[in-house]
Write a structure and sequence with these properties.
By secondary structure, this protein is an all-alpha fold. The protein has two domains: about 1-100, no CATH class; about 100-253. Helices cover about 70% and strands about 0% of the residues. The protein has eight helices and no strands. It has helices at about 5-30, 60-65, 75-95, 100-125, 130-140, 150-170, 175-215, 225-250. The chain starts with 5 loop residues before the first helix and ends with a helix. It is found in: Cell inner membrane. One of its GO terms (molecular function) is methyltransferase activity. It comes from hydrothermal vent metagenome. It is an enzyme of class 3 (hydrolase).
């Protein structure tokens, strides 16, 4: 058989869109202590049930011009963006790792990170259901991956341990949610990519922080959620981390 073609890529992209649609439910309901299973999808303003024809990822939002069919309230662009982002990341990970257990492993982490990112942006919290659950799953299935249980435990310890130490040294500078998120990331990536995630996310956070102060009048006292930067750093490490580490070692050796 030949390499998977465009039709396969389309199926993977659509799978990601469907997962993204569910992640929108998680992002909205989990911080509000609502079930992500029931009731079914409904307008957040008028409560009208969303029909199947109005719940097609990407297309329904476009066809309805981002409005509720029943009450006409504006439906946030976030719903469209989360679906598109999840579709693209799902395709990118499957393209990078093929149809394999590591791909499935990283897909779960990526989907969790998307939910974490938008919950932290909107509510400035990172639910334990996502971080602790991800860490436990990462450890539980690690024996099926090249990382192994020892690598997963070491990654969890390095990732969570560094942030825990920072929280002790700089009280208030690192939240408990960030510590647990970094531990979960380490359980999936191992210690090397956990360190790269910390470096990359810190760099991204510093750049955004400086730009916020320079262009938006923010001060050092203004809190910027760090979960999105950790998520971005982890995704960069998953997709390109090994190549980045190899390139760095080639430069210094």
């Amino acid at each position: 058989m030949g390499e998977p073609g465009l039709l396969f890529d389309f199926y993977i992209f659509v799978l990601g869109l469907c997962v993204g649609s569910f992640l929108n439910v998680v992002i909205y309901r989990l911080p509000n202590n609502q079930s992500v299973v029931s009731p079914g999808s409904h307008c957040p303003d008028c409560g009208a049930p969303i029909l199947v024809r109005d719940n097609i990822p990407l297309l329904s939002w476009l066809f309805l011009f981002g409005l509720c069919r029943d009450c006409g309230v504006v439906i946030s662009f976030r719903y469209f963006f989360v679906e598109l982002l999840t579709g693209l990341l799902t395709l990118a990970i499957v393209t990078r790792f093929g149809v394999s257990l590591p791909a499935l492993f990283y897909l779960f982490l990526a989907w969790t990170l998307i939910a974490v990112t938008f919950i932290d942006l909107n509510f400035q919290i990172i639910p334990d259901e996502l971080t602790v659950g991800a860490a436990m799953l990462g450890l539980a299935v690690s024996f099926l991956t090249p990382l192994g249980i020892k690598g997963a435990l070491l990654g969890l310890g390095v990732g969570g341990g560094i942030f825990f130490a920072l929280a002790i040294i700089y009280p208030g500078g690192m939240g408990g949610g960030d510590i647990k998120l970094m531990a979960a990331i380490g359980a999936f990536t191992g210690w090397k990519l956990a360190l790269l995630t910390i470096f990359t996310s810190s760099l991204l956070g510093a750049v955004v922080g400086v730009m916020s102060m320079a262009f938006y009048g923010k001060s050092r006292k203004d809190r910027i959620p760090f979960g999105p930067f950790l998520s971005a750093g982890a995704l960069i490490s998953i997709l390109w981390g090994e190549r980045m580490i190899a390139a760095y070692l080639n430069m210094i050796l």
